[in-house]
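Protein record
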Amino acid sequence: MANLAEFVFLDTSSTSTTSNTFYVPYGADEMVLQVKSSGTPDVTVKGKTDRENGDFVTLSAINQTGYKLVDKIEANGIYSVAVSGIREMQVVNGGSAGSVTVFGAAVGEG
């Protein structure tokens, strides 16, 4: 697998913050995210398949520690999100966890 991008998706100390919209690199099959917070995170990953049309919808993530499928990330750790066919993504901090940072990489055959 090729590492297509490494970047910070969200870095905030505010509550109810939505990241900038970012484009998923072509050829990416998966986003691997690491969530770090000073409290209990309340993070949702959203995506859409068409840049011009449609609304962002919640994408499920797999916790890489216990392989539990979640719609909302509520614990620090590493998560993977399937993004094959997803063109745009956002990360939303919906809680009051204090400082929240989400960073990671897009991986796939690129």
